[in-house]
Amino acid sequence: MELLATQGHTVRAATRSADKPLPKGVERVSSANLGEVMQGAEKLFLLVSPAMGPKAELDAIAAAKAAGVKHVVKLSSAGAGESRGAGQAPPRDGNRRSRRAAWTGRCCGPASS
Questions:
Q1: N or C end: fewer C-beta atoms under 10 angstroms in the chain?
Q2: Which of 51, 45, 50 is nearest to 26 (CA)?
Q3: Is 6 helix (H, G, I), strand (E, B) or coil?
Q4: Domain boundaries in the chain?
Q5: 12-48, pLDDT tens digit by residue?
């Protein structure tokens, strides 16, 4: 986030901890109204805690789509150490149905030795 902000990009972040400091130039936003937060955004980096469940991901993707976000990168770390063939975790069915915006769907697993 800090690198993007220092390069002049507008960066907004919704976090679970309102008291957690953010890098200089990063705007803290509420996730209560994702549609409003994503208005004017071109790209979304999505990192959702597994504890929040798949609904949080689907809500964010739906809000991004409605706001016209053109590129979504979703970081998936849950189960990253598990073997899933070719180092990739299968996407959830709900996520597959939500892919209407052009977005990066490749998931990288641990390096092979």
A1: C
A2: 45
A3: helix
A4: 2-79
A5: 988 878 888 999 999 998 888 888 889 999 999 998 8
